[in-house]
Amino acid sequence: GIAFLDGQYLPMSQAKVSVLDWGFLHSDATYDTVHVWNGRFFRLDLHLDRFFRGLEKLRMTIPFDRDDVADILHNCVALSGHRAAYVEMLCTRGASPSFSRDPRQAINRFMAFAVPFGSVANAEQLQRGLRVAISDKVRIPPASVDPSIKNYHWLDLVRGLYDAYDRGAETALILDFNGNVAEGPGFNVFRVKDGKLSTPAIGVLPGITRRTVFDLCAEEGLVAVAADVSVAALKAADEVFVTSTAGGIMPVTEIDGAPIADGKVGSVTSRLMALYWQKHD
Ligand code: PDD
Known about the structure:
The protein is of the alpha+beta class. It has two domains: about 1-115, Aminotransferase class 4, branched-chain amino acid transferase, N-terminal domain (D-amino Acid Aminotransferase, Chain A, domain 1, 2-Layer Sandwich); about 125-280, Alpha-Beta Barrel (D-amino Acid Aminotransferase, Chain A, domain 2). The protein has eight helices and 14 strands. Strands 7, 8, 9, 10, 11, 12, 13 and 14 form an eight-stranded mixed β-sheet that branches. A six-stranded antiparallel β-sheet has the order 2-1-6-5-3-4. The longest helix has 15 residues, at about 65-80. The two termini are about 25 Å apart. Bound molecules: N-(5'-phosphopyridoxyl)-D-alanine (PDD). N-(5'-phosphopyridoxyl)-D-alanine binds near residues 183, 210 and 244.
């Protein structure tokens, strides 16, 4: 992989930041990831929108505009030589001089990198569906109040993952403050019931893949809504799938050790998966 740091393109192994950076010390950072497939970026504009919105909300400034950032990302991919890449742009508060507690003193730090594409689900899991456990951990929306700021805060999600591993599952879903299903480590979740789709509305990152599913549903004449999804409703679904830049649309066929419907990847999920990858051509 290749990183961009302090105006230079570097091999990943040389891209290092100070332990005093507030991104590390306080999770005071925002980021966005976008994927490259067959050498082409997928919905880069939407990822840049979200990233620049996050910067504004966090009052961070970088010496680059949208076009500059797009150029940097393209350069990282070109230099890395990867045709399928996972590309990240990020900005941390930076390190404050003399250990000041005033974030205004810090010089914000923009970085980017391109590494080989890594999916939430491997090829076998995409075929048979993921085995998921629902953890009782509660998603604290990043930046405490605004889940639309994409932030590295994952304590709740990582604890949920360990709950899932302890129970023999492959990944986790965690809850919102009301005990409904929220999201998982790096993905949103959809329920299909009687041909209708629903996905949690609150306490989740408004994912760009999630939005792409809404776009696909509109094109295909399928009804999709953002609304509370209870644990019971998810388990009683006809089909369940999760969505992420890291893997697209990925089927779930088992929750807490019990199959979803007949335990096979459903027809709506398969159709949306095919359409999703067609959008990349
Ligand atoms: N994560 N929820 C969380 C907590 C996420 O971190 C992500 C993405 C998503 C899905 O959003 P999108 O469809 O825009 O990728 C939902 C990125 C891929 C990551 O883990 O780096």
